[in-house]
Amino acid sequence: MKLSRLLVLSALGMATMGASCSEDTTTQQNNDQQEPVATQEDCQPIDRGTANTPDQKPTFEGQTRACEIKSETQFDVQVLTKNLQKPWAVEPLPDGNLLVTEKSGNMRIVSASGQIGNPITGVPKVDARGQGGLLDVALGPDFGSDRMIYWSFSEPRKGGNATSVARARLSDDRSRLENVEVIFQAQPTYDGTMHYGSRLAFGPDGMLYITLGERSDKEIRPQAQQMNSHMGKIIRIAPDGKVPDDNPFVNQNNTLPEIWTAGHRNVQASAFNEAGEFWIVDHGPQGGDEVNKVEKGKNYGWPVVTFGEEYSGAPVPNAVTTKEGYVDPVYYWDPVIAPSGAQFYTGSAFPEWKGNLFVGGLREQALVRLRIENNRVTGEEHLLTDRKQRIRDVRQGPDGALYVVTDHENGELWKITPR
């Protein structure tokens, strides 16, 4: 176990411009600068360098490049382990241990001291090519009594694959999954390896919210706007997989009743805040990652309404940055951070961070802290940039600590506590 001590510092423009966004490789196309936008006088945004689409302007003040903020809080980072294989999600357990998924298909328990357990048996086969594999994991709302866990994975099917969600009882000895049941299968099946989405979050209503990507390729991308497809949607189902009667599109012709919202690209970060509001952070195109507050039945635009451009540097075909009938993002990044994993901080260990949204940054190699006030981002800080690791997920434990996994073949699990 290795213990690293550091002060909370913000990053000042240390992003590597040739790194990966949305797990797509890209080269910067533009040398122009986007004019910084700040929401307060006498403040500056984080210097993130060249914008990909400098001619695109925010729809409202503060929609991008908010004021840089700097924490006064000091913290320690404890490296619990460096031996996880491409971890995708971390879920703290009530007893202080941690449930971790590895992209190849393994689910493991990591002890509070960093000891990695053997793979839990009973996980269905996954298609781990490209961005696929064993993805998110979440404890059921009654885990304390029924030991139910839920996970998402790219399920191999005839003709390709798609995102599925399963549930099972974690055995008393935590060695196996019992009574495994697939409760949701995204349709259609597609022969691709990208944009599975896949974050899981239980709401205060007890329902399960599932984020789905649109599978990236231009031939299937338009389905993000088609209501007879799960692609590019957020799904809301009951814990047993049934469709709630109050979903917005129940009993509508040519519309899948599980759909909660439409027009998403590849959401790998989602979280509820203490007020019970659902927020997501979507992998956008080059120069178009966005933060959205999710509301029932709304359309978030992709690929009709979006900031940014294709990874080739070409415009997104026929797209505009704002349009009546579509929800404008609360915030966007250009250049992108490649968001994965999100957590609203609700604990008491870090009072200064109460209510802040933490987002993992793959391309940015940072833990991004957003201060949100009145549904607007009013401050941004980039933490842990000195470690130069792609952050895949961040979760809050019952002890108020933050737990982070990194996106590497020898992935690390970190515990962040007050100094």
From TrEMBL:
Signal peptide: 1-21
Glucose/Sorbosone dehydrogenase domain residues: 84-414
Gene3D superfamilies cross-referenced by the UniProt entry: TolB, C-terminal domain
Keyword Membrane applies: no
Top-rank lineage group of the source organism: Bacteria
Stretch list, region Disordered: 22-60
Low complexity compositional bias, start-end: 24-34
Pfam families the UniProt entry points to: GSDH (PF07995)
Protein name: Glucose/arabinose dehydrogenase, beta-propeller fold
InterPro entries, per database record: 6-blade_b-propeller_TolB-like, Glc/Sorbosone_DH, Quinoprot_gluc/sorb_DH_b-prop
Keyword Cell cycle: no
Lineage: Bacteria, Pseudomonadati, Bacteroidota, Cytophagia, Cytophagales
Swiss-Prot/TrEMBL keywords: Signal
